[in-house]
Write a sequence for this structure.
């Protein structure tokens, strides 16, 4: 039976494929642009808000019928295409896919299941796996209140707002088991059972399953287990991770999904390995030792945290309460299980560490940049006491970003003129970008300027909304309508306000910064955005300091702090800034991906040589802060980096931006933009990243290598 116009719209809305298809996104926007923005770009809510008559009227006015038919047909062809990279290169995963576990997934702002970089990376991984046709399913938790919405009060202090989201208002559906019933899993603890229901999110060809404890089988306390991402105490954290790992594997089993490979994105999901071992013991009659060996062969682990304090640790009582029944079923007891999470198994004072469990139960492990791989090998040498540091079996696969999600559609049209016809399908290959620098400088710069105007318009809207919420007077609202100068060098800084990211490094010498932004001949403006963890008052203090500087007469209108950083604001920022500022305390930035998004859109990075930038910078594709060396004294290092930041701004960035030709174009600046895209666009791309995981991780873990000799040397 042929689908109706409305049915086709709902079919498009319920698969997040639409969110990286600009022509489909424009259909929803054209139905009602004001509502589309008001409803946080949620197509399901948008369609529910329109009556049949309203929908038909808008379709006629915007000539939508043919566009919807074309989009629906394209989506169907995409979903059923058998001629993909994955079909050719990852056939062994076809019947038994990769199961990708993560505590958060940043797919789109309408699904608030992410807090920052880790989740957005996971979302980009799924989208590239879908585009490449890699057989992969994903498992996470469904947070009923998501991460928080951020409000900045009159004093510049962060306030967290949690808005419950009803599942029926999201583009998701209940997952069904082999018996056709809803998938509900149970995990036993010493103090009772925890239940979770699985929901399915369609991300192109990839199915993402999210577990939700807000169901009637649970106690009131456990119903709130999955209410908030990274909220609550250590007890809530371990219960969430038990549901994610053990519950996630059980949910897949109920649906008849038998993974060939399990990929743990950070240590939060490491308990999955215990359930995999238990299943092998139960199903195949294996001993614990044999089942663990078989499980370890199929597991891939990616660590993201170069700071020891950033790894989840639990004491004996917590492990016994929550994993005691599992330990008994494995036949190793709580003491034996805790040993799997300790570097020094015999040390009774060492807590159980999720990362240690993940390393011990994975044959293949990696950091997320070359530098982070080195830091991780150094950090975890204790796990391999008989190996030299360079022999520690932790490699690296550098993170990348999803082109369809982060590249501005306006620029994609410009790129179409110089790149091969199929360039979007081969964006992770170097050869695709080889002719990029032949792009028209004038057209490239004009598109960039338009995107900067778009960013400034959004910043103005958000600042006006905040001012209205705080009942500011009409005069200030009028002033905000002309906030920021579209002609000025615009520097963006947006990320978590974690202390090591040093959002306030640029404030080390306030007088020098005041002189830079006060230069009317070469104006400079800075846009800040980001959230601090709800429990991190130090981070909130950094945020407040930047806010107060933005209110100082010397900086007002030239330094702006925009509240509620999310994927929507991130898109506008990475597509519109001239320069992306990144100044973490080296080597604490494992990778960082926001600057990679800027690359795709022609912006230039000005960064400490840390994370991905340490392997990306070539002297002509952006700017380096300092020389990559680390002082043993942290205060001296901060002082040195602050001086290096001011030096590069004053001696390299600003002069290059304002070196204009007779047409007013910064010709040499545009050369740097072109080189940045050509040299970095393919390398720091999630298609390349996923292809690396497939070839270096998934296929070996699935036993699909056709040649491997190194281990015999």
């Amino acid at each position: 039976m042929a689908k109706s116009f409305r049915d086709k719209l709902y079919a498009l809305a319920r698969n997040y494929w639409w969110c990286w298809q600009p022509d489909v996104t424009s259909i929803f926007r054209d139905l009602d642009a004001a509502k589309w923005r008001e409803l946080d770009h949620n197509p399901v809510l948008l369609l529910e808000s329109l009556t049949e008559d309203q929908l038909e009227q808008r379709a006629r006015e915007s000539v939508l019928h043919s566009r919807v038919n074309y989009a629906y047909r394209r989506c169907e062809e995409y979903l059923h295409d058998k001629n993909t990279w994955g079909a050719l290169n990852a056939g062994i995963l076809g019947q038994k896919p990769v199961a990708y576990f993560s505590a958060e997934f940043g797919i789109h702002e309408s699904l608030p299941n992410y807090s920052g970089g880790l989740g957005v990376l996971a979302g980009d991984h799924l989208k590239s796996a879908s585009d490449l046709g890699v057989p992969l399913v994903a498992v996470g938790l469904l947070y009923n209140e998501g991460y928080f919405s951020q409000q900045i009060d009159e004093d510049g202090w962060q306030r967290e707002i949690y808005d419950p989201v009803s599942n029926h208002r999201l583009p998701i559906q209940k997952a069904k088991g082999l018996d056709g019933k809803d998938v509900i899993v149970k995990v036993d603890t010493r103090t009772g059972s925890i239940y979770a229901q699985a929901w399915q999110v369609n991300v192109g060809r990839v199915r993402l399953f999210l577990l939700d404890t807000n169901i009637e089988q649970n106690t009131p306390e456990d119903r709130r287990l999955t209410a908030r991402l990274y909220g609550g105490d250590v007890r809530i954290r371990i219960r969430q991770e038990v549901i994610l790992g053990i519950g996630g594997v059980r949910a897949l089993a109920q649906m008849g999904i038998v993974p060939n490979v399990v990929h743990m994105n950070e240590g939060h999901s490491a308990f999955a390995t215990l359930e995999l071992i238990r299943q092998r013991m139960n199903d195949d009659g294996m001993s614990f030792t044999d089942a663990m060996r078989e499980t370890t062969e199929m597991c891939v682990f990616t660590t993201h945290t170069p700071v020891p304090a950033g790894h989840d640790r639990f004491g004996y009582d917590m492990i016994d309460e929550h994993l005691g029944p599992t330990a008994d079923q494995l036949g190793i007891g709580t003491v034996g299980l805790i040993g799997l999470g300790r570097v020094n198994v015999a040390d009774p004072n060492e807590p159980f560490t999720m990362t240690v469990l993940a390393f011990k139960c994975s044959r293949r492990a990696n950091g997320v940049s070359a530098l982070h791989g080195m830091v991780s090998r150094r950090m975890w040498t204790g796990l391999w006491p008989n190996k030299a540091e360079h022999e520690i079996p932790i490699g690296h696969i550098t993170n990348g970003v999803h082109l369809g999600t982060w590249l501005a559609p306006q620029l994609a049209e410009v790129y179409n003129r110089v790149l091969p016809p199929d360039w979007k399908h081969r964006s992770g290959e170097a050869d695709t970008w080889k002719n990029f620098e032949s792009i028209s400088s004038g057209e490239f710069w004009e598109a960039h300027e338009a995107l900067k105007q778009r960013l400034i318009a959004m910043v103005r809207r958000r600042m006006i909304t905040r001012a209205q919420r705080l009942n500011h007077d009409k005069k200030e609202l009028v002033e905000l309508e002309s906030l920021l100068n579209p002609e000025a060098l615009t520097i963006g800084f947006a990320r978590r306000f974690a202390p090591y990211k040093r959002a306030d490094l640029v404030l080390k010498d306030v007088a020098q910064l005041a002189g830079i932004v006060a230069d009317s001949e070469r104006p400079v403006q800075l846009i800040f955005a980001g959230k601090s963890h709800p429990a991190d008052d130090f981070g909130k203090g950094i945020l407040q300091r930047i806010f107060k500087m933005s209110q100082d007469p010397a900086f007002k209108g030239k330094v702006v702090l925009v509240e509620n950083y999310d994927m929507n604001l991130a898109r506008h920022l990475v597509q519109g800034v001239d320069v992306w500022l990144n100044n973490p305390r080296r080597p604490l930035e494992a990778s960082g991906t926001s600057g990679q998004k800027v690359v795709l859109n022609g912006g230039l990075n000005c960064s400490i040589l840390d994370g991905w930038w340490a392997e990306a910078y070539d002297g002509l594709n952006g700017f380096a802060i300092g020389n990559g060396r680390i002082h043993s004294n942290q205060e001296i290092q901060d002082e040195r980096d602050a001086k290096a930041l001011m030096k590069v701004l004053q001696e390299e960035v600003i002069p290059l931006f304002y070196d204009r030709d007779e047409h007013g174009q910064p010709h040499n600046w545009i050369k740097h933009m072109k080189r940045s895209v050509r040299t970095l666009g393919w390398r720091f791309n999630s298609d390349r990243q996923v292809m690396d995981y497939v070839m270096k991780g998934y296929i070996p873990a699935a036993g699909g290598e056709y040649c491997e000799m190194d281990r015999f040397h």
About this structure: The chain is about 45% helix and 15% strand.
